[in-house]
Amino acid sequence: MGGKGLEPAATKELSRQSGLSLGEIDMLDEYHLLVPDTKCAKYRPKLVGWSKKLKEKLLMGWSCEQIKEWTKERW
What we know:
By secondary structure, the protein is mainly α. The chain has helices spanning 8-18, 22-30, 47-59, 64-74. It has one domain. The longest helix is centred in the C-terminal third of the chain and has 13 residues, at 47-59.
């Protein structure tokens, strides 16, 4: 668990800082909503803020599909 091809320590730290569970990180990773830095397989520091926003949406009951649609409108 904890994202594909990622360092476990980086994923656990992201989980700790964002409030996302490891399962939620895996799920968001599958939908390409959380993407690690491909050079070193770690999450960029500003991704913590983004992951907190994703956690808010999940707590509001949004599905990954709904979040994906929301990101299209946002960006």
